[in-house]
Design brief:
The complex is a heterodimer of chains A (about 600) and B (about 100). With about 600 residues, chain A is an alpha+beta fold. In chain A, about 60% of the residues lie in helices and about 5% in strands. Chain A is built from 23 helices and 7 strands. In chain A, helix 2 runs antiparallel to helix 16 and helix 3 runs antiparallel to helix 5. Classes of the chains: A alpha+beta (about 600), B mainly alpha (about 100).
């Protein structure tokens, strides 16, 4: 009976993995890179590289806003942090309906000048690809990703059951036998970060649960990313849900993060024109891909729909307010929102830069002051809507905990790197599993269509996706910044590189294809710092370059990936040389035996 | 149909494996749905919490039913237990799940 169970689990493990392994690899790789999505986006906008935060940054930002949006209803200032070196300004005029945060602009934190960044989707493209793929209808793509994630979850559980010596196997690495070597590599990468794999897979399932769940409920909860009901256009969903959501928004303590964000969207956008990308908006990343799209042209009157202000208040000492806020929050200030700016009833909301809870809301702690520095109760008319979480049940808390863990929203630099390495482990686990399938069947099934297809897809999806990603980075710097539609050109380059890799794999299905593709991709990854040095306006060896932790992080990450790929290519090259030598020896030996 | 399933595609009729997969996917889905609804009902979840309980429960129950129904050695057993468990679970939902 035991043998039967193990056999059935092995079968389930094998086929649930291999049938969706290539999609899983893409999801894992792009998801792992998304841990550094902010760093990637920063690297892909070299115009921002010269920005160095100073103590005067907030003052510069408010001065700039008072010039360009003097009559706005509110201003929001995203201050430089450990993961951002620019100031992100946004403001909303009364009657604005186009977006929650209205117009926006990016400022150089040291000079206070507006930064014209190139048109690119940056790390957001990889992040979106991770759970929505590309150019597939959103609901279909999410369903595909959800099914693949569930297959992964099944593979993990069955993998644990079938490996009755899972921890013994963990300490073995038998390189002499090819199949056993790949099996050991698969087991090591799986066991090394098994809790991470279980967490990331189950939280991924919860994120997109509305895609697969039989019952979405009438709760407006919608799953991460604003899932909503399937088969219904996004905008229509918004319009249908608005009255209900607005009503719910008034009940303090009954909404989760997604609910609160949507309530804010409903308030800000009574015409139902909100984009619905609440998932991004909550993290402050969906303010237009490059800041250019939302920015009004200079010289164009912005007075339409603005309030008339009869009286102006005296300028407020922002440095004093920030000090007070930091003392109150016991943390750095990450974002400032000023309601009714430059008026006597102005209100200053300061949001903490870091989260101190795994299950709390996305906005984190905040404190509000009036113009004299007195603590006041925050107005409800802020971008995150209802601030109080209230009590929630175990399942909601558990879901919120898993979602926070999945996105590593709480993570500092060290923990982010740990998550990245665990993600790399997961990516390698999927890759080694797919390769193991073909290695095990090489003797029996070589030449059969199914086997050859798996080989091509293995090369095309594993080496090919790595090639696509690195080409995406290179094109970002090689395509001139002023070209119209360059963001699309970058993405087209991504898919063209992927297609070339697959075509190459079709014609060279042997180890040479692996070797050469990995050599090229590894070299391109390893050369990223060089490309950065040559094409960025700020040298890596200058003070600004050295102090730019985001950029250095990205370059280090690329070097590590490049080194890993080059080492793999070298190993494959050595191994194939040995195989050829052995094959050459065999006929010679046979000839001598015949001669004797 | 009533023989033990040999988990090698080359030695087992493909229809047998296909049938088992179909049973597990469809019956497992129905079973997980019923059990997660039941869980939400029994834990007294209300409003938004129902959705969270159902989400968490559904995927756990679905995965468990995958493993359970695949580990049964005979197709007939798998079909029988899938039908029986679904019947019992949906009956329980009918009795105790009225407040959902």
């Amino acid at each position: 009976m035991k043998g039967s169970v193990r056999k059935s689990m092995t079968w389930l493990h094998t086929w649930s993995s291999i049938s969706l392994g290539w999609i899983l690899f893409a999801i894992f790789l792009t998801g792992t890179l998304s841990y550094f999505r902010v760093e990637i986006s920063h690297w892909m906008k070299p115009e921002q590289h010269g920005s160095i935060p100073t103590e005067q940054t907030l003052t510069l930002a408010t001065e700039h806003l008072s010039e360009i949006a003097p009559n706005a209803q509110n201003w929001t200032i995203g201050l430089p942090s450990i993961r951002s070196n620019v100031v992100e300004l946004s403001w909303k005029n009364e009657g604005d309906t186009q977006r929650r945060r209205g117009a926006m602009e990016v400022l150089n934190a040291s000079s206070g000048e507006s930064v014209e960044v190139r048109e690119t989707r940056g790390g957001d493209f990889l992040y979106r690809f991770h759970f929505e793929l590309y150019s597939i209808p959103r609901d279909v793509a999410r369903l595909i990703v959800e099914v693949a994630t569930f297959a992964m979850f099944i593979a993990l559980i069955t993998g644990i059951i079938m490996h009755h010596k899972i921890f013994t196997d963990f300490f073995m690495f038998r390189t002499k036998n090819r199949a056993l070597g790949w099996s050991d590599a698969h087991a090591v990468t799986a066991v090394l970060s098994l809790p991470f794999h279980l967490m990331i897979t189950f939280s991924g399932l919860l994120f997109l649960s509305s895609s697969l769940l039989f019952w979405t409920g009438d709760t407006g909860h919608g799953g991460g990313g604003g899932g909503g009901e399937r088969g219904q256009p996004r905008q229509e969903q918004q319009q249908v849900k608005q009255p209900e959501m607005a009503q719910r928004g008034e009940k303090r303590g009954e909404n989760d993060g997604a609910g609160r964000e949507r309530n804010a969207m409903v308030r800000d956008n009574p015409n139902g024109a909100a984009s619905g990308r609440a998932h991004d908006d909550a993290n402050g990343k969906a303010r237009g891909e490059n800041g250019r799209g939302q920015r009004p042209e200079r010289g164009v009157p912005r007075a339409e729909g603005m309030r008339k202000r009869s009286e102006r208040a005296a300028p407020v000492d922002m440095t004093m307010l920030v000090s007070k806020a930091q003392a109150q929050l016991d943390d750095e200030v990450g974002r400032v929102q000023i309601n009714n700016p430059q008026t006597p009833n102005a209100q200053y909301l300061f949001y903490a830069a870091n989260r101190d809870t795994l299950t709390g809301d996305r906005a984190g702690k905040s404190v509000a002051f009036d113009g004299r520095g007195n603590v006041v109760e925050a107005q409800e008319d802020n971008q995150f809507g209802n601030r109080n979480m209230g009590s929630s049940g175990w399942a909601s808390s558990f879901s919120a905990l898993l979602r926070t863990l999945h996105e590593a929203r709480f993570a500092d630099g060290v923990v982010r790197w740990l998550f990245f390495f665990a993600g790399v482990g997961g990516t390698l686990m999927v890759a080694t599993g797919s390769i193991l399938w073909s290695v095990k069947r090489a003797k029996k099934q070589a030449g059969q269509f199914g086997f050859e297809l798996v080989k091509v897809l293995n090369i095309g999806s594993i080496a090919g996706l790595c090639a696509a990603v690195v080409v995406y980075f290179w094109l970002n710097r090689l395509i001139p910044a002023s070209i119209e539609g360059r963001a699309n050109l970058e993405i087209q380059g991504f898919f063209i590189a992927w297609a070339i890799s697959i075509v190459h794999a079709i014609f060279f299905r042997n180890r040479q294809a692996w070797k050469w593709q990995l050599y090229v991709v590894g070299a391109l990854f390893a050369a990223i710092p060089l490309l950065d040095q040559v094409t960025s306006p700020v040298s890596l060896f200058s003070y600004a370059g050295f102090a730019d932790g985001l950029r250095v992080t990205f370059d280090v990450m690329c070097c590590l990936i490049g080194a890993l790929l080059l080492a793999t290519a070298r190993y494959l090259g050595k191994h194939s040389t040995k195989s050829v030598t052995r094959a050459q020896r065999r006929p010679a030996k046979a000839t001598s035996e015949v001669g004797a | 149909m009533f023989k033990r399933l040999n988990w090698s595609l080359s030695e087992t009729p493909r229809w047998g494996v296909g049938l088992r997969v179909l049973v597990v996917v469809v019956a497992g889905y129905a079973l997980a749905s019923a059990l997660s609804l039941l869980l939400a009902s029994l834990t007294g979840a209300e409003g938004r919490e129902v959705r969270s309980v159902v989400s968490v429960g559904f995927f756990l129950f679905y995965a468990a039913s995958f493993v359970w129904l695949f580990s049964l050695p005979r197709h007939a057993e798998a079909c029988f237990y899938a039908a029986m468990s679904n019947g019992v679970a949906w009956m329980a939902v009918w009795f105790w799940g009225a407040n959902l």
